[in-house]
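[Help] Beginner question about ligand-bound structures

Sorry if this is basic. My supervisor gave me a protein sequence and a SMILES string for adenosine-5'-triphosphate and asked me to "get the holo structure". I don't really know what that means in practice or what format the answer should be in. Inputs are pasted below exactly as I got them.
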Amino acid sequence: MTRSDKDTIHKRTENRRLLQRMKTGLEVVKHTPYKGVLLGAYLVGAALVWLFRAYLFSLDSYGMFSPVLEAAINLLIPLYAVGGLLAFLAFLGTPRGNKAAKEGLQKVGLVNHAGEAPALIAKRQDGNNPRLTIWEFDPCGIPLGEWEDKRARIETALDITIAKMTWAEGRKLIRVYAVPAKSDFPALLPWKDKYLTPESFVLVLGESLTGAVTVNLANIPHILLGGSTGSGKSVLLKLLLMQSLRKGAEVYIADFKGGVDFPKVWHNKCRICFTEEDLLYTLGQLVTVLEYRKGRLAETECKDLDTYNEVTGENFHRIVFACDEVAEMLDKTGRSKESKEVLAQIENKLATLSRLGRAFGIHLILATQRPDANILPGQIKNNLDFRVCGRADNVLSQIILDNTNAADQIPKDARGRFITGDGTVFQAYMLDEKQL
Ligand SMILES: Nc1ncnc2c1ncn2[C@@H]1O[C@H](COP(=O)(O)OP(=O)(O)OP(=O)(O)O)[C@@H](O)[C@H]1O
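Answer (accepted):
No worries, everyone starts somewhere. Holo just means with the ligand present. The predicted complex, written as structure tokens, is below.
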């Protein structure tokens, strides 16, 4: 069975379940124990009435009722049993807190033009991640964007912390994945080697409420990290570089602070550029490597580095270039004419690598804390597809994630807490450099 067959079957089953839920008001959820007790009591009661029906109708032994009335009374018990059972099933199917959820959402202003709040259709534990509860809503015409805008208010109304919100069932439902408001991220998640992924070239960043946050550089080649000072950018950058080294990549680093940011332990494993001239030379070499690989891939008709290595049996390593303060590095303010010329060339080479690096296994991981919109040229920034932002003001949040409010989700005192471009908040693993 192909994957698409499985997807189709899964979709059909989901559609059937949804249809059934909508028709009967039933919910495919774990029933709470008190509902089970009530159902049991009802069934026992109904069975007793049925067993003793002869006694109950002995009243008619004196022929007091007409045959029609007697038949009607005889029918009454099975009707009562079936009707009651249906009512019970409908009752079981209504998620607990349905009314409270609706009222809560109404109070925080998540309503459509008619003033209606979304209706909670189902609430269940996430099969893939038992920490999460999935709340399924009929959105009542309220678009997902509005839910995102009112995320904090929805959290207050439902007393939850939201991990993510998505459309489901072809935009018929909105699914809210959440944990109880009391639970939160751990303040510290020490890195362990067992977190290293076996897949080339998937790097792990940390843990969100829905699971590990990863990036596959084979698909999304470059990363932009942002965050104000002390937010944890450098630690996260080093975490990614450490994994790149472990996976056999060549790592190049620009560090103009004379090795303050990258102590000795890194010098043995990476090529560090301490000056602008050195950096320009190194980037020039990387562009030459890129051109060479381009020629080899064209000759062998391979679409990317992995295919080339597989087909030829060669082992072109992935190359990662990193800079912890790229905006500072490229800032031309107050520079001499010659220095500006060197920076322009550096910028130019970075732009080439960012544009063409993916297919040839050359990746950029750039970090910045500066909220200056124009420092990072658009032709570089636009190619840095995987964006991550830590604690930041609205300006930096806008620069990194193109969303002024995204970084508001990071508490001001959080360290190593980040949000990705798709709105996933995560706690980054804390790397101890001794683990390098
Ligand atoms: N993942 C993490 N988990 C917990 N604490 C962290 C994490 N990352 C960083 N920290 C804490 O935050 C401090 C600052 O981290 P880091 O130096 O990476 O910040 P930064 O954003 O690079 O700041 P700056 O730009 O000023 O160097 C670290 O010394 C550490 O105590």
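A couple of things worth pointing out: The first helix runs from residue 3 to 24. The mean pLDDT is 85. Feel free to follow up in the thread.
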